[in-house]
């Protein structure tokens, strides 16, 4: 059995137009070519698709059953051809993007929507991880792109473009001991348990660590849950609070008396200059660069 796309298109057109001659006019072919294509299809399938007893052919029940699947099959064939074409022009077979845990609340899904609209056949895999783990995934090739906070020291292989400014705030449950003070000293911070979002690798010192006693988690959602349960204070994205009125009611932003830590960070789209990026990754990078030019 050797059925091609043209045969399926002719078969579909004959059923929809009601005759070989009408299908031929619609497809820009001579009626004999349409008739021969249908005859060859019937031979390949070992089925009678049309009754030719009257002036116009009549589709058989078997033909109507196959017709119901024809549109879907033609769509899949076109998608297959488009995907093959895209792959031949540099589209990666899949694109892995890692989002730093504290940034999951950010509108990162907008960037995925842009990619899907431009490359509908592309497989996209999204991961979340703490900052240090996200950086490792980028450098070892597990991920091609990363949404992460700016770094004090860049790896020599890193390249990036800025996305936005993100504000983090120190917070505690309103019933937590630190929340009872109008201002909190550095000494009080040091001696109160901190809930820290950090790498799973215990040998790496967590970022934004100020307390001598701390609990560690690898994402800000679990950190928030622990803070809400009065197990400690922590640093959360301000946007996370703004998007959730219930959090605002239950958490207090701490006013630090003795110091002003750097709680504003630029969020970057990062990639490795040592990795060969595919067409989708390059498209997203260029899209963000173009958006920055408009600001």
Question: What's the quick description here?
Answer:
By secondary structure, the protein is of the alpha/beta class. It has eleven helices and eleven strands.
For the termini, the CA-CA separation is: 58 Å
- How many DSSP-defined strands? 11
Q: Which whole number gives the mean pLDDT?
A: 86
Shape: elongated
Sheet-strand content, in percent, reads: 15-25%
Count, helices: 11
Portion of residues in helices?
40-55%
H/E topology pattern: HHHEEHEHEHEEHEEHEHHEEH
Q: Which structural class is indicated by helix and strand composition? A: alpha/beta
What can be said about the biggest beta sheet? 9 strands, mixed
Unreliable segments of 5+ consecutive residues: none
Seen as an oligomer or otherwise, the chain set is: single chain
Radius of gyration: 30 Å
Protein name: LysR family transcriptional regulator
Family: Belongs to the LysR transcriptional regulatory family.
InterPro entries: LysR_HTH_N, LysR_subst-bd, WH-like_DNA-bd_sf, WH_DNA-bd_sf
Organism: Acinetobacter johnsonii
Q: What does it look like?
A:
The chain is an alpha/beta fold. It is built from eleven helices and eleven strands. Strands 3, 4, 5, 6, 7, 8, 9, 10 and 11 form a nine-stranded mixed sheet that branches. It has a two-stranded antiparallel ribbon with strand order 1-2.
